[in-house]
Design brief:
The protein is mostly helical. It is built from four helices and no strands.
């Protein structure tokens, strides 16, 4: 009797286990997808424009210092305009 019961129920059991595992994997994937959407929504609503906070990443701090110091050697706008006007007047005189 026990052997006949195994022959009848033995084959469907692995199939049922297989389908249950597929269903559980699919539901985990869906919940992870919803979680990532929630994370994207949260990140899009946060304001990153708070100027009082310093970044915690050292590379970002170095980049901020580099950007601040990049204007130290820049030409003043008034000097650039004077040079452009002088070159324009020199070009007019040569014509």
């Amino acid at each position: 009797m026990n052997i006949q019961l195994y022959r009848i129920l033995g084959k469907p059991i692995p199939i049922v286990i297989f389908f249950i595992s597929i269903i559980s994997l699919n539901s985990d994937y869906l919940s992870a997808d919803y979680y990532s959407e929630d994370t994207q929504i949260d990140q899009s609503t946060k304001l990153d424009s708070d100027p009082s906070t310093l970044p915690t990443n050292p590379f970002e701090i170095v980049e901020m210092i580099r950007r601040a110091n990049s204007m130290n050697d820049a030409t003043d706008p008034s000097d650039a305009l004077d040079e452009a006007l002088n070159s324009f007047h020199g070009w007019e005189e040569n014509q």
